[in-house]
Amino acid sequence: MREKLLFLGLYLKEKGSFKASKWIEEFPKPEEILEKFRLKEKDLLDLAERELEKAEKVGIKILFIKDLTFPEDLKLIPYPPLFLYVKGELNDLTKFAVVGSRKPSPYGKEVARYFAEILSKAGLCLVSGLARGIDTIVHRVCVEKGHATIAVLGSGLDVIYPAENKDLFKRIVETGGAIISEFPLGTKPKRENFPRRNRIISGLSKGILVIEAGERSGTLITARWAQEQGKEVFSIPGNIFSEQSKGTNFLLKEGAIPVTHPLEILHYLGLDSEKTLSEEKPDIEITEEEKTILEILSLGPTHFEELAEKTKISPPLLLQILTELEFKNLIKSLPGKYFQKIS
């Protein structure tokens, strides 16, 4: 306990320094901390005890990297956090990160809801960053369905950011999930905190899915951390003319795995089952033209030209609609320009 308190005191004195990840190696004996930084033991212990008291009052646990309850996956990453502040429960479910743009397109929002619902229903605990946009959608879908999710903050746990997610913060804890951060209480959400936060999102997870990301999106930093940690990166293919898809399409060129259905991720993780495969699809918005095509395809596999003739839709537009239906996993293409409805 003394070792934990001395390291925590130093961590607080150094304002949660990123260098802390190397202190365990540098100072095998706690006494060396006092020597190196010319500090008094009592000062560090007082700092640490005050922080622990504040945390306890608001239901926050402070985990030390040597604690048995500290997540094993995080101990193994480059630059592991020395401390982890936790509100809620770090469950034993397989964890998987889903991240993306703060300003997603309608397409990105729909994909986020679709993947979050199926992946969480299949038993994955989804990890994200509580940011506006894709992150918020992912967490919200999980809590609405009663599934555990983990949000990793770039601020202290007593500084909820963005402020509009205060209710979501509370609901994540209530539904068996957790809010975590490596930053001491009172830490503001500074810009430089988020790249650090991103390594924890990927570090906790078996893999990461990027749904939409701009060319210079912070989401790409999470993907880079995942690659450095030896985690698989999945990416949703996007419109080549869309700003929100420039990052995801770049990741695909760099070797990320393209996915168009959640079951592809479950297959990779070895978590697919008959139960998952047979579960109902989440509600998907269907246009009138798509409904017409689905009605025709419900009678059996149909050739492209027959569809064009029956629907009176121009071939270029029909091809676009069929592609959208494939992305929604409602139909599949067959050899010879035939299409079939997926039951």
UniProtKB/TrEMBL annotation:
Residues 61-268 form the Smf/DprA SLOG domain. Residues 282-337 form the DprA winged helix domain. Gene3D superfamilies: 3.40.50.450, Winged helix-like DNA-binding domain superfamily/Winged helix DNA-binding domain (1.10.10.10). GO terms for biological process: DNA-mediated transformation. Pfam families: DNA_processg_A, WHD_DprA. PANTHER family: PROTEIN SMF. Belongs to the DprA/Smf family. This is DNA-protecting protein DprA. The lineage of its organism: Bacteria, Pseudomonadati, Thermodesulfobacteriota, Thermodesulfobacteria, Thermodesulfobacteriales. The gene is dprA.
